[in-house]
Amino acid sequence: MKTKAAILWELNTPWSVEEIELDAPKAGEVLVKIAASGMCHSDEHVVTGDLPFAMPIIGGHEGAGVVEAVGPGVSWLAPGDHVVFGFIPSCGRCPSCSTGHSNLCDMGALLGTGKQIADGTSRHHAQGQDISTMCLLGTFAHHTVVNEASCIKIEKDIPLEKACLLGCGVVTGWGSSVYAAEVSPGDTVVVVGIGGIGANAVQGAKLAGAKHVIAIDPIEFKREKAMQFGATHTAASMAEALPLVQQISWGTMANKVIMTMGVGSGAVIGEALALTAKRGRVVVTNIHPAMEYSASMSLLDLTLMEKQVVGSLFGSGNPRADIPKLISLYREGQLDLDSLISKTYPLEGVNDGYEDMRAGKNIRGVLVYS
């Protein structure tokens, strides 16, 4: 079939919206008509080369839609089902999946190839070439073919333009607080960077019972939104936050510091540790450039104060369990998905959406397809 998609042909160039040829699903695969896709900063990392994925590539990894067809062997999905894509597939059988850590599924090793899990070939083609897909999904498109391992079935009454956010940003941010940081009732928590991930880290910290949630962002609009999502205090920088955290914690500092900046920097890890209490934890969720191999920090501080620096992928969550869980919290009014969406765009507006993201105008822009 023919459909439309946004393709990145070269680094540091605009997304090109054009017609593509999409093959039918093969064994274990699913054809999905996509309703909406979040515009995550990770796709920007592909544009800049911070994430070295195979090109040309169809962007988008935060999507939701309706199943139109299934390939041989797919028994649990049928045409008409509503699905959210998990940006990391989960096989359910590898050591990580079998111990409850499907965010680290062995299939994730294939993400950078952009080819189908089953046979390593492409279902997406344009200008006579095979086209890769971001995170094996390619949600900057009206249709896609994905492996069933990337699909999570949801109830049909959930708006798909809200549900798509659960494919990455919401679970990643919320889980960074609840799972990776292990925020406990009464904790003082700092969230550095209030975008699509940081806003949900704030929500997760609040729901976990944090006493203080300090949101740090240089943009006033984002600091104001953080208060709406549950922050108790804000600051424009980590330096500005330091005396604030000292004051409200009576000098003990933050139990948890969660790094959710648009682009991570090893140069600021030391600042994050300075905000951290004895036996406190810094969670590094934001993506750093692939070729960054150093971080500035006091290892003596790490040892003598028993501080921790940990990484977190997909919020250290389990997409098959956590996406339905967070949908239920949304239903009960305990998780705000509606306010995350700053603006919607058609597929043809993808470059406008990323321009707005770079300008700090959006918590999350969403592509909505008619």
TrEMBL record:
Ion transport is among the record's keywords: no
GO cellular component: cytosol
Keywords: Metal-binding, NAD, Oxidoreductase, Zinc
Entry GO MF terms: S-(hydroxymethyl)glutathione dehydrogenase [NAD(P)+] activity; zinc ion binding
Pfam families hit by this protein: ADH_N (PF08240), ADH_zinc_N (PF00107)
A biological process term (GO) from this entry: formaldehyde catabolic process
InterPro entries noted in UniProt: ADH-like_C, ADH-like_N, ADH_Zn_actinomycetes, ADH_Zn_CS, ER, GroES-like_sf, NAD(P)-bd_dom_sf
Matches recorded under PANTHER family: ALCOHOL DEHYDROGENASE, ALCOHOL DEHYDROGENASE CLASS-3
Protein name: Unannotated protein
Organism placement in taxonomy: unclassified sequences, metagenomes, ecological metagenomes
